[in-house]
């Protein structure tokens, strides 16, 4: 499964985002391209969908208030740690790959940069 975090963006915006990630400027964000925040948002959405629609239950179905309370607890504690986790995995541990994408110049660099960034997300 491919996870595209970036909307279709102009090559210069992708390059600017890549530059901000590499140089640790503005949390790697450029305009509405926010690698960490976007990834965290997709992760939260996926987990919330999963929790809303469990595959099976072993006990009697919980009441609406129990479901709401449980979801709130999950979102407060584990999901609250996602930004740091995603920053570590997506940016810090992949710094060499981000730098590789940033170093591309000339014809074809846009596609090579996009491919490197996609491998980071994959």
Description of the structure:
With 122 residues, the chain is mostly helical. The chain has one domain (11-121). Helix content is 62%, strand content 0%. It is elongated. The N and C termini lie close together (8 Å).
List strands and helices in order, with pairings.
Elements: H1 11-22, H2 35-52, H3 64-76, H4 82-92, H5 95-103, H6 109-121
Helix pairs in contact: 1-5, 1-6, 2-4, 5-6
Key attributes of the depicted protein:
62% helix; mainly alpha; 122 residues
Number of helices in the DSSP assignment: 6
Largest sheet: none
Shape annotation: elongated
Helix amount: 55-70%
What number is the mean pLDDT?
83
Q: Note poorly predicted spans.
A: none
First CA to last CA: what distance? 8 Å
What is the H-and-E element order?
Answer: HHHHHH
Structural class: mainly alpha
Radius of gyration over all CA atoms, rounded: 18 Å
* Beta strand count: 0
What number of structural domains do the residues give?
A: 1
Residue share in β-strands = under 5%
In short:
The chain is built from six helices and no strands. By secondary structure, it is mainly alpha-helical.
């Amino acid at each position: 499964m491919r996870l595209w975090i970036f909307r279709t963006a102009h090559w210069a915006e992708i390059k600017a985002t890549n530059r901000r990630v590499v140089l640790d400027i503005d949390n790697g964000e450029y305009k509405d391209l926010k690698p960490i925040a976007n990834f965290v948002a997709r992760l939260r959405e996926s987990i919330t969908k999963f929790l809303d629609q469990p595959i099976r239950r072993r006990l009697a179905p919980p009441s609406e208030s129990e479901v709401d309370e449980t979801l709130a607890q999950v979102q407060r504690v584990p999901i609250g740690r996602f930004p740091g986790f995603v920053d570590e995995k997506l940016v810090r541990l992949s710094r060499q790959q981000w730098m590789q994408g940033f170093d591309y110049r000339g014809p074809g660099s846009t596609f090579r940069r996009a491919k490197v960034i996609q491998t980071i997300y994959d």
